[in-house]
Design a protein that fits this description.
Nucleoside Triphosphate Pyrophosphohydrolase, 2 domains, six-stranded mixed beta sheet, binds zinc ion
Length: 268
């Protein structure tokens, strides 16, 4: 692990969901020899790992505070297409820590004021002592294939034209496999089989852990769920619509589908 006292620190300062970045062609955050050096008012700060040889800090900037000259607050969703996976991971972690702190100022059990705990990511209630830790909400993301076609759907919140694989939150008491079957059934009316683990990715909107699985179509008629899915269709690798940004696990799953098609074509 790098010596935190030696290098620069990278400052991931969030005001609500917006990250402070340099006004530059590339997306970069301010660097300093310590988090105190950034000339901006902060209400909370905590180290969140390492990036490019420096220690990364999450900083919370109160609402109404203006960005220092040469910097601007940008929505993390608006810039994630322009950053690499490492940057996105650290920025996402910082965003979740700041968001957790902002929503745990008071104890959920007794309503008492909380305070940060030295040395661990926790808020302790000053009245009843209850510890509050950052919450992570597991969600499944599932790639459904039918022979040489992939199922891609559109949720109402997606950027114009974009389609992606299906996703949904794990409910209390559910296994990951049960979530997959329920979500696919609810969102598009299909049955699936042959579930296999693909990979996972922390997703900071607002605090998910995306658990990726692949599945095969097993039956049913495509029936988009009103209000949840605007459209859903089967696509071949050579005719894909607009896809999610490369930094997302959704895109990795779709790219993997395309690569497999290319491989199987090359071998015949
Ligand atoms: Zn309490």
């Amino acid at each position: 692990m790098p010596d935190p006292s030696a290098g620069e620190t990278l400052l991931f300062a969030f005001q609500n969901d917006r990250l402070l970045v340099l006004e530059d062609e590339e997306v970069r955050v301010p660097r300093a020899s310590s988090p105190e050096e950034l000339e901006i008012e902060t209400s909370f700060r905590q180290p969140v790992g390492y990036l490019d040889g420096g220690q990364a800090w999450a900083l919370e900037v109160p609402e109404g505070v203006e960005a220092p000259e040469g910097t601007a607050f940008r929505d993390l969703r608006a810039i994630f297409a322009a950053v690499d996976e490492e940057f996105f991971a650290v920025a996402g972690r910082a965003k979740q820590i700041v968001g957790w702190h902002a929503t745990h100022r008071f104890c959920g059990r007794c309503g008492g004021v909380t305070e940060p705990v030295e040395g661990e990511p926790a808020m302790r209630c000053t009245r009843c002592g209850m510890m509050h830790y950052p919450r992570v909400s597991p969600a499944v993301i599932v790639r459904v294939l039918r022979e040489d076609e992939i199922l891609l759907a559109r949720s109402p919140g997606f950027p114009k034209g974009m389609r992606s694989v299906l996703a949904g939150f794990v409910e209390p008491g559910e296994s990951i496999e049960e979530t997959v079957h329920r979500e696919v059934r609810e969102e598009v009316g299909l049955e699936v089989e042959n579930l296999e683990y693909f990979g996972s990715q922390p997703w900071p909107f607002p605090n998910s852990l995306m658990i990726g699985l692949t599945a095969d179509y097993a039956g049913g008629e495509l029936t988009p769920e009103p209000g949840e899915i605007e459209a859903a269709d089967w696509y071949r690798a050579e005719g894909l619509p607009e896809l999610p940004p490369r930094v997302s696990i959704a895109r990795r799953m779709i790219d993997d589908f395309v690569a497999r098609r290319d491989d199987s074509r090359a071998s015949t």
